[in-house]
Amino acid sequence: QVQLVESGGGLVQPGGSLRLSCAVSGIIFSSAAMGWYRRAPGKERELVAIIGTGGSTNYRDSVKGRFTISRDNAKNAVYLQMNSLKPEDAAVYYCSAHTTYDIYWGQGTQVTVSS
């Protein structure tokens, strides 16, 4: 019954912005670390950002200063604000939840960066 549902993907031009959302149900959200991963065509899935239960964050180097991960425990939601998007950011973005026992994944949302 655990569900993670991403939204907010779409087509943007280089330099544009998108805000991804992930709605979570079926877990104690406040006890789960939340992450965003992405997979580009022909590439392996890679971690983009993660936010811990206490609000600590980590980002891969290529998105530092451009992306911001946040969470709203009252809404059971995690967000990824993406600014100054580059073509290399184009990928399917996946939300993840890490609980005591398992890791859960959303089905992904497509981000396309093209002019």
What is the ordering of alpha helices and beta strands?
A: EEEEEEEEEEE
Radius of gyration: 13 Å
Number of helices: 0
Our estimate of the beta-strand percent is over 45%
Largest sheet: 7 strands, mixed
Q: So what's the overall shape?
A: globular
What is the mean predicted local confidence, pLDDT? 97
Number of strands: 11
Structural class: mainly beta
> Uncertain spans, ≥5 residues at pLDDT below 50?
none
| Through-space gap between termini | 40 Å
Tell me the helix content.
Answer: under 10%
General description of the model:
The chain is globular. Helix content is 0%, strand content 52%. The chain has strands spanning 3-7, 10-12, 18-25, 33-39, 46-51, 57-59, 67-72, 77-82, 91-98, 103-105, 109-113. Strand 4 (33-39) and strand 5 (46-51) form a beta hairpin. Strands 2, 4, 5, 6, 9, 10 and 11 form a seven-stranded mixed sheet that branches. A four-stranded antiparallel sheet has the order 1-3-8-7, with no helix packed on it.
